Amino acid sequence: MRKSEREVTEPREKFAALLKCGYITIAVNGESGAPYALPLNFGAELKGDRLFIYFHCALEGKKLELMRKDPHIGFSAANMIRVFNKRVAPCGYTADYESVCGTGRVRFLTDNAERIHALQKLTEHYAGKEFPPESFEERALSLTCVGEIEAEEWRLKRLIRPAT
Predict the structure, then answer these.
(1) What kind and span of H or E run contains 44?
(2) CA angle, 110 as apex, 117 and 122 as ends, to 5°?
(3) For 49-80, what is each residue's pLDDT tens digit?
(4) Cα separation of 114 and 128, whole Å?
(5) Pairwise CA distance, residues 140 & 164, whole Å
(6) What span, in angstroms and rounded, lies between the C-alpha atoms of 99 and 75?
(7) pTM of the prediction?
(8) Longest dimension (CA), the chain
(9) Rounded to 10 degrees, what is the CA torsion of 140, 130, 15, 93?
(10) Which of 82, 124, 140, 157 is the most buried (most CB within 10 A)?
(11) Does 44 score more than 80 pLDDT?
(12) DSSP characters for 61-97?
């Protein structure tokens, strides 16, 4: 990271910043040599200092094809805290932010208990509460692919200045 003074290294602080983000963007190796990037809803948890990110999708599609071919992915998420003008002029605009970026490996979950756990983390992220396992309908589960990304490396960059 070029501006190392902006890096936050404490895992729980990085995790808290990630959970403030509304979505995560993943990039997989595309067919034409260019990355294939797409935004996803997500849930996450720390197991010790290891980050796990969960997502769900349909049972087929381009992203699944590409991830099955090569499970290595990049990911990023950002939280724009505020945009303001430091001086008078268009070039004076700047922003305070937190951004989480990293790399990881995708694994598709087949065990029902693991799948439900991942979906609980996802719904908890957006609904703010945990749903009991029995609330996940069998029919919906049968139509849902659930993926887990284990982060191999991840960083938080933060810039928050005092309000003037």
Answers:
(1) strand 43-47
(2) 30
(3) 999 999 999 999 999 999 999 999 999 999 88
(4) 20
(5) 50
(6) 11
(7) 0.90
(8) 58
(9) 80
(10) 157
(11) yes
(12) SHHHHHHHH--EEEEEEEEEEEEEESSSSGGGEEEEE
